[in-house]
Hints:
Blueprint: H1 3-13, E1 16-25, E2 35-39, E3 43-45, H2 50-64, E4 72-77, E5 89-97, H3 102-115, E6 120-125, H4 129-138, E7 143-149, H5 157-160, E8 165-169, E9 185-188, H6 193-210, E10 215-217, H7 226-245
Parallel strand pairs: 6-7, 6-9, 7-8, 9-10
Antiparallel strand pairs: 1-2, 1-5, 2-3, 4-5
Helix pairs in contact: 1-3, 4-7
Amino acid sequence: MNTLQTACDTLAAAPACWVEVLKAQGSVPRGVGTWMLVSADALVGTIGGGHLEFQAMDQARALLATADSPALEQRYALGPSLGQCCGGVVWLRFTPLVRGDQAALRALAEGSRARLAPPMEVALFGAGHVGHALVRLLATLPCRLLWVDSRDAVFAPQWLAAPDVVCEHSAPVEAAVADLAPHSQVLIMSFSHAEDLEVVAACLQRQRQRGDLDFIGLPGITGKEPEVIAVSVTAQLLQRAEAEKKPPQAGAGS
C-alpha cells in the first residue's frame, strides 16, 4: 500500500540503491522526482519500465557490488541508445544506501516529493464502502487526501498512518469545509442525504465568498458497485488534472 514503507523494509534487509529521475527533456516515461529502489534481488517503485529501467537496474546493482561507491548521475538518450519510442532524454541520479539507513532513504524521498508536480488536493466526505474504495485508489496516485466523516472510529487503521491521507472526524461534518485546502476537488458521498446537502451548501457558500473550490462533485454513475464508482470518480479527477495542465488556446474565452 505504502511504497516508501516497502522501500524502508527492503533497505532494512539489504543495501540498496536509490534511483531518481533528476531531469528530463522531451517525451519520457516518467517525470522529474520519480524514483525506484534497487537491491540485489528486489525492486520497489518504477521509473517507467522498458530498457531505461532495465539499464538503470543494472547500473544500480553494479554500484552496489562495489564497496563505498559514490553517488552517480548519468544521461540516457531514450531513442538513439535505448530504442524506446519516447525519444526524449533522461538524467538519473544513483545513490547507494547502506543497509538499515532508513533516515537517508526518507530524506531522499522527501527531496523527490519537492521535485514532483504538485499533487491533487482532494477532500472526500464519507467513509462508507465507496469512500474506502476511492481511498484505496487515490492513495496510489499523486494526491493529498482529506477524508472526513461525522462518525468516529470509521476509518480503517492503515489509513490513519498513511502519509498522504488525513482522516478527520468532524461533527457537524460540514464544519470541515472552512479549512479545506484552496482548490480542493470535493467529493461528497456520505451515509446521509441530509449530510450531503449540508456539505454542498457549505461548499457553495465558501465558493461565493472565496471562489477557491474548483470542483464540487456528487457523481451520478450507472454502476452501483463501490469499486465501479471509485474507478469512475478517479478517472474524472485525472481528466480534470490533465485538462488543467494544458495552456489555454489563443483567443479562447473564459
